[in-house]
Amino acid sequence: MNKKEVLEVWIDEYTHRLIRLAYSYVKDWQKAEDQVQEAFIKAFNSMDQLKNKEDPFPWLARIVINECKNSFRKSWREVISNFIPERKLESSEESYLRSVREEDVHNAVYHLPKHYSLPITLFYFEDLSIQQISQILNLKSGTVKSRLARGRELLSKKIEEDGYGGKRIKVSKNVH
Hints:
By secondary structure, the protein is mainly α. The chain has helices spanning 3-26, 29-45, 57-71, 92-110, 114-125, 130-137, 141-162.
């Protein structure tokens, strides 16, 4: 595949994930989309620097994070709603209730301090490993584990205090 074809595959495969990642920095969907677009341009221009061609996501995520850091201006005030996947076998009422619960969890995560929300977003929503997150965020694995643990603790308290979804939501995933 030539560079243009590789870029098209990356855009198809990673755009939504990278936009969610960018959103955790810029807190604005339009800005997040702009940052991802800029990141794809930079990735295209420096594609030869990619070492792990089988899994470009950590590399692309690092570029997106750098783009976001360079353009960071304000915090966000929007509610997450449009990236929650739909389920075909649910009734519209079930689908609505599930989306409200998921939106509440996402909302609670994005209200955490950025140094906790980013590892949680990458670990739980993007299903990345501790090692991949540590590469993306330029942190030691122990730091990532610590931030995940503290972030989960804060998230549980926030969900319980704010009453997101009317129920206490248990946040857990084996980090070891």
